[in-house]
Amino acid sequence: AADIPGYLTQADILQKIGSFITVRGDTFVVRAYGDTVNPITGEVLSGAYCEAVVQRTTEPIELTNPSVPTDIVRTGGIFGRRFKIISLRWLKPDEI
């Protein structure tokens, strides 16, 4: 069927649109907040804000020993891909 007129391959399509497509970005900005609350009064004693730039890598991860969460090796990747923190910065409340 390859020599039949009208036969279209993926390569034919990619050759035409290749200069217009871009790679999917696997970098994310994550913001987090945590505080300390007085258990008796319920008053917020202190709080902190941070922003992390996180990149998902191509390296798959799998837990080898579920009782030890830090025991991770590169294998089949049933837990997805490894994340790498590119940068971390503390924020002021007015930067939120």
Task: Explain the overall architecture.
The protein is mainly beta. It is built from one helix and five strands; from the N terminus they run αβββββ. The protein has one helix spanning 10-17, and strands at residues 27-37, 44-60, 62-63, 72-73, 81-91. It has a three-stranded antiparallel sheet with strand order 1-2-5, with no helix packed on it. Strands 3-4 form a two-stranded antiparallel ribbon. A hairpin with a 6-residue loop joins β1 and β2.
List keywords for this structure.
45% strand, two-stranded antiparallel sheet, 96 residues, 5 strands, mainly beta, 1 helix, single chain, three-stranded antiparallel β-sheet, 8% helix
Query: Could you give the order of the helices and strands?
Result: HEEEEE
Tertiary shape: elongated
Rg on CA atoms, Å = 24 Å
Annotation, overall tally of beta strands: 5
Structural class by secondary-structure content: mainly beta
Q: What's the mean pLDDT score? A: 80
Main beta-sheet strand count, sense and barrel state? 3 strands, antiparallel
Enumerate the strands of the largest sheet in spatial order, edge to edge or round the barrel: 1-2-5
Total number of helical segments? 1
Distance between the termini: 59 Å
**Poorly predicted tracts of residues:** none
Percent of residues in beta strands: 35-45%
Helical amount: under 10%
Oligomer: single chain
